[in-house]
Specification:
Blueprint lengths: L1 H7 L4 H27 L2 H30 L7 H41 L16 H25 L8 H21 L5 H44 L13 E4 L4 E7 L7 E7 L9
Antiparallel strand pairs: 1-2, 2-3
């Protein structure tokens, strides 16, 4: 399929999805038995659980920050909303960790090839493979190339659907600014290009700029949708319409402690549709004044 695409210049997203789907299925079919072998050993299971614990800790911290950025209070006062924010974070973290795993596997394959070439003069032909495994070097090269291709495609896909918005919009803007400054400095230091080279370079720059801009806009929309979904959950499910703390009609309340409450009011003109204010709890026991 890759040869057909190169020679026939096939430009089809479905064709590329099927091609890289086959490559991903091949990579998984080779990695999965090794993963199960690692999982069935006690040290391997400890390493895998440790990695999952690190990912879970980052995801929990990210979800806590999302709740705090919306409400202005600690996420410990909103346990159900914190859990819902974690659920919203799962797709993005899944894609990011998958990309990291693919890139790490690619680096391991590169190191594996290097040591295989070094040990080949000493008679080592099938390092870390079963005795009947054939074409060790060629399959390793193919795996390396296709792992790199799949990782790049997944990163582009994650950016296009907005799943890379775990990195804030400010970070994205800084990244684009740094890239633009780097391109400017390179252009100033390089000699002038010919007309054909300039056309090719301008096309590549235009495609890259369009891709980065599209990914940034979709990431912002994805982040906004996350915030709106979480804000709606807080108002509809976490907040109480009736409380011992007095509050204006039409607002809902989350009691932070005996003396403070978080009041939530619907404001359609706001970006997420709600406003949050911390007010003193005016109740019969404490006093209404």
């Amino acid at each position: 399929m890759l040869v057909l695409q190169l020679f026939l210049t096939i430009e089809s997203s479905l064709f590329e999805a099927i091609m890289f789907g086959f490559a991903l299925a091949g990579i998984i079919s080779e990695v999965w038995p090794k993963f199960m072998t690692l999982w069935n050993s006690l040290p391997g299971k400890a390493v895998i659980l440790f990695i999952y614990a690190i990912i879970a800790n980052f995801a929990l911290a990210s979800a806590s920050g999302l709740v705090n950025s919306i409400t202005g209070v600690s996420s410990s006062a909103l346990p159900y909303s914190h859990n819902f924010a974690l659920i919203l974070m799962v797709p993005g973290w899944f894609f990011v960790t998958t990309l990291m795993a693919l890139v790490s596997g690619m680096l391991i394959i590169f190191i594996y090839l290097f040591f295989l070439l070094l040990l080949k003069p000493f008679g080592v032909q099938r390092l870390w493979h079963k005795p009947g495994y054939r074409y060790v070097l060629s399959t390793a090269v193919a795996r390396f190339v296709w792992t790199l291709g799949v990782a790049l495609q997944l990163s582009v896909l994650a950016g296009q659907v907005g799943l890379l918005s775990e990195f804030s919009a400010e970070s994205t803007s800084q990244l684009i600014t740094i890239e633009n400054e780097t391109e400017t400095s390179i252009e100033e230091s390089e000699p002038p290009l010919t007309e054909e080279q300039a056309e090719v370079t301008s096309e590549l720059e235009g495609d890259l700029t369009a891709l980065l801009t599209d990914a940034k806009q979709k990431s912002i929309r994805y982040k906004r949708a996350q915030r709106q979904a979480l804000a709606s959950f807080i108002y509809e499910f976490e907040a109480d319409s009736r409380s011992r703390c007095a509050h204006p009609e039409g607002t809902r309340v989350i009691e932070l402690n005996d003396y403070e409450s978080l009041q939530i009011a619907q404001t359609p003109e706001d970006e997420i549709g709600y406003t949050y204010t911390v007010e003193p709890c005016r109740s019969a026991a404490i006093g209404l004044n």
